[in-house]
Amino acid sequence: MQLTFFSVFTLFVCCQCSSAATQQEESVSELLWKANKDVVHTAEEPLVMDDIAYDKDSERNADQCTSRGCMWPKSANGRVYVPYVISGHYSSRERGIIERGLNSFSDVSCIRFVPHSGQRDYINIMSHNGCYSYVGRRGYSQTLSLDRQGCMYHSTVQHELLHALGFNHEQCRSDRDQHIRILWQNIQSGLEYAFDKINTINMNTPYDYNSVMQYHRYAFSRNNLPTMEPIPNSNVKFGSATQMSKNDINRLNSLYC
Predict the structure, then answer these.
(1) CB-CB neighbours of 126 under 10 Å
(2) CB-side exposure of 62: number of CA atoms within 13 Å?
(3) Which residues are bridge partners to 229 per DSSP?
(4) What is the DSSP secondary structure assignment for residue 249, as one 8-state letter?
(5) Measured over all CA atoms, what is the biggest interatomic distance in the chain, rounded to whole angstroms?
(6) Does residue 221 surpass a pLDDT of 50?
(7) Does the annotation count 160 as an active-site position?
(8) CA distance linking residue 133 with residue 64, whole number of Å
(9) What is the DSSP letter of 62?
(10) How far apart (Å, rounded) are the C-alpha atoms in residues 54 and 41?
(11) pLDDT at position 16 over 50
C-alpha cells in the first residue's frame, strides 16, 4: 500500500514539475500577455498602458528617460543602489522569485537593489492587477506590480525591473524600422500604442531580437497573424527571451556603470 501511494505521489510531483517547466519555457512577452490581457485596473492604480505605468496620458509618446532625469543615482563607490519594498502579501516562494530577480542584476552590473531604509525614492513591489512598472525613477514611492496570479516568473521580474531602471520595449526603439516591420493591419484595435516608436536610449547597442524587452511575433494580434516581422530576413526568430540577453546587460552597464 505504501509503495502504491509513493508511486502515485511521485507521478503527481513529476507532472507538476513538467507543467512548471513548460510554463517557465514561455517567453516573457507571452507571460506578460497572459497576465495582463483581461486585467481591469482600479482607481487606486496608476494609468497603465500595456505593462507601463504613467502619471498622465500625455507621457505615453515620449521616453521618460529622455524627457526628464529619471536615472537612479550612482554612489561614490560606483554602484547604483535602488531601494525597494516587497509587500507582505507574497508567500515565501513568491518572495524568493522576486528576490532572485532583484539579485540577478548585481551578478552582471553595478546595480544593487537594496531593502528600503528611509530613502526618499524607492520601488514599491506589490501584487496589483497584472504586471507593470513606471519607466525610470519617478520619485518617492513608485509602484511595480507583480500580480501573484500571473507575474511570478524570473523573466517578468527582470522585465519590469528594467522598466523601472529606465528601459522601454525593444520594438519601440527609435531605430526599430531598420530591423523590424510593424504590421499595423493585424494589431487589435486600440492597442496600437504598444508599437509606438519613441526616442529611446539605445546606448550604441544593436537592435536585439533576443532582448527580454522584445515582444513576440504575434503580440496583440487581432487575427492570429503576425504583428511584427524582422527585416530584411523575415524568418529570424525573436521575442522568445526568458531572461536578460547579453545586449540587455551591455545596455544596462553602458547607461549606469
Answers:
(1) 17
(2) 11
(3) 181
(4) H
(5) 69
(6) yes
(7) yes
(8) 13
(9) S
(10) 13
(11) no
Query: Virtual CA dihedral for 31, 35, 36, 42, nearest 10 degrees?
Result: -150
Instruction: Give me the catalytic one of 30, 59, 94, 160.
Output: 160
Q: What pLDDT score was predicted for residue 66?
A: 52
Residue with cell 507621457: 59
Give 181's DSSP letter.
Answer: E
* Cα–Cα distance, 236 to 226 (Å, whole number): 13
Residue 227 has pLDDT above 60, yes or no: yes
Amino acid identity for residue 41 in this structure: H
Q: Cα separation of 138 and 90, whole Å? A: 24
**What region, left, alpha or beta, does residue 203 occupy, with left being phi > 0 and alpha being psi -120 to 50 degrees?**
left
Give me the count of residues in the chain.
257
Q: Which three cell numbers stand for residue 131?
A: 504586471
Stretch 208-232: mean pLDDT: 95
Lowest pLDDT segment from 9-18, 96-105, 215-224: 9-18
Residue 10: predicted pLDDT:
38
With H, G, I as helix, E, B as strand and everything else as coil, classify residue 86: strand
**pTM, 2 dp:** 0.86
